[in-house]
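Researcher: Hi, I'm a grad student and pretty new to this. My advisor asked me to get structures for two proteins we've been looking at. I'm not sure of the right format, so I'll just paste the first sequence and hope you can take it from there.
Model: That works fine. Here's the first sequence with its structure tokens right after it:
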Amino acid sequence: MTTRSRLTPEREAELYTAVLDLLREVGYDALTMDAVAGRTRASKATLYRQWGSKAELVVKAMRHNKPAGFGDIDTGSLHGDFHAMLDRTDDCQMEKDSALMRGLAQAIHTNPDLHEALRDLLIEPEMSGLDALLRRAVDRGEIRRDNPALGYVVHMMIGAFVARQMIEDRTPDRAFLTDYLDAVVLPALAA
């Protein structure tokens, strides 16, 4: 049994950042251990000793950089909660998240570990946070419990995030998502 030498947390974070940057730039299929080694001044042997495979390295990088959720947001209104949720990110991070999703789009269909990591990194925190926000809005009487749109909020949000790039060739940003919330999501929930 081989033992892994321990990397410092700073060095590990540097490697993970480089992996995610490369993933955004070239996509999963074109991402190579050679490229990671070159960008991080590490040996390919070290990378394989630490992570075993490209898939494992990418998954660990994604899990390491998992964003904070927003289930703790409670402004007293659904409108306020949604806008506070958007205030927790910035256009630069949204651009990075969008590029990451594009970089993984094809690969997740053939690699279940990558699909799980994408869900853990971007989708699951949003789903959990949205569920908490929506439950509070139902409890406050802002949304009817039987509103059929409740089951589709996460689909609407992720759909807008992904579709903007495809339809307009523009990265989603706070202004777009704010308008989308006010024009589409909130009216659907009030119906």
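Researcher: Oh nice, that was easy. Here's the second one.
Model: And its structure:
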Amino acid sequence: MRIQLLDNITGKWSMQWIIGWFICGVLALSLGFWKFTEHQALDWFYLGVSLVGLICVVSLSFRKNVMGNGLGMAATAGEVVVQATSGAVGLMLAPLFNFFTHVYGIFYWSKNTDPDGDMVPKSASKWIWILTIAFIALGLALFPIVNDWLAQKGYNVVEDDGSQFLGMIDFYWINVLAFVLSITAQATMILRYSFNWWIWIAVNFVWLIVNLMTGNYIFAIQTMVYQINAFIGLYEWHRSEQLAKGKLA
């Protein structure tokens, strides 16, 4: 389905959109930084990492290899430093995974580009969908076991403190779902499957709940900014995929 506004945003208005979205993202993150952090050195560092992350994710949504995967490497390396410095060694696992996928992506995407040098997305067969769902199910099943083992070593990823969302859903499982979906979305994005943005949209909804429950308001703001970009990325990748197939005029 063609939507004229989104066609313009991902087409002739793309640069104006990117600049406007980035400025709004900077303002939102800066507001969150000044209002909800203590302005310590680590807070400043994470703000810088978040700003790099803004450029990274918008570049990925518009299929830019070097800007997307290159800055993705920088942003995830920064996240590793933040988690390590704060003592959350277990939380280094996700950004470490993302870092190495970006390393792979920068070479893989370069081999699959259109005449403009932008990466060409691909559609998923039913077997890829089945494999993705199976991976998520396996991840949800194995994560508690791995997390408990890491906890015994002092490096647990998610702590089960017994808190609940809306008095019904264990906060622990919301964190587990966010972690597993994030890994899945990252992998399918690097492998160029356009449906990855549907997973990122789901991930952002889950992370928003996590961040609001933990009082990480700067992360919640970042999540909402990323969510807008995820919808644009979904449309842009799907449109580019259809163009590559010759199904879209």
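Researcher: Is there anything I should tell my advisor about the second?
Model: You could mention this: The radius of gyration is 18 Å.
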